[in-house]
Amino acid sequence: MELVESQPLLEWLANNYKCFGATLEIITDKSQEGSQFVRGFGGIGGILRYKVDFQSLQADEPLDDVDLDDY
């Protein structure tokens, strides 16, 4: 695989977010809320466009039957 172009993620997001119908909000880490956001989400977060029914996504099998060493 060959690297064709290298660009910082924030710059790419700033240039391309409208192509995906998204809204971009840049939050500074200089405020208490912004600092908490960076620590909690690693600096990147998002809001889903469509409602997700998380109840339907839950596994049918109990977690005690799952061996986490398999993953």
TrEMBL record:
UniProt superkingdom:
Eukaryota
Q: List the SUPFAM superfamilies.
A: L30e-like (SSF55315)
Q: Which GO terms describe its molecular function?
A: translation release factor activity
Q: Which residues form a coiled coil?
A: none
Which stretches make up the eRF1 domain?
10-52
Q: What is this protein called?
A: ERF1_3 domain-containing protein
